[in-house]
Amino acid sequence: MKVRQLSVFLENESGRLAEITGALGDAGVNIRAFSLADTSDFGILRVVVSDIERARLALQAKGFIVRETEVVAIEIKDHPGGLAAVLKILGEHGVNVEYMYASLEKSSDNAVVILRPEDVDQAITTLLDHAVTLLPAERVYAL
Q: Which residues of the chain have pLDDT under 50?
């Protein structure tokens, strides 16, 4: 149920994001979900890809600092309050969500959300106990 995500550190300079996405494209790696956070000096691109090892090698070859993190992919009802219901469950069970972002794809009529909880195992147990649909990594990489 754990999904591997890459975090790529980049300078906040024109063209750097294009360099990353170009390296992934040249390596034949598809982006499945992503989030970009920045400051005035640097940014962190968090990305779920179709082939994490190929992506890591391609980005490191271009000199990028790359770190792997475990995240959880969930399927939620795509209607008002769908996300709130899941976040309420996590909050009531003491699971802190550090950050989250949506996938580029939907799963059937549901939305796919990537979560980074402080405690991935506790989040998985809590979500499964409350019948929240977790997506296996292979399915997320193939979305």
A: none
| Full-model pTM | 0.89
- All structural domains of the chain, each given as residue ranges with its CATH number in brackets, are 2-69 (3.30.2130.10), 71-142 (3.30.2130.10)
Phi, psi of 41 (to 5 degrees): -105, -35
CA pair distance 98, 119, nearest whole angstrom: 10
Q: Which two tokens stand for residue 60?
A: 């490191």
Residue 116: CB partners within 8 Å, gap ≥ 6?
Answer: 5, 46, 69, 71, 72, 97, 98, 99, 100
CB-based contacts of 77, cutoff 8 Å, min separation 6: 85, 110, 111
The pLDDT value given to residue 46: 96
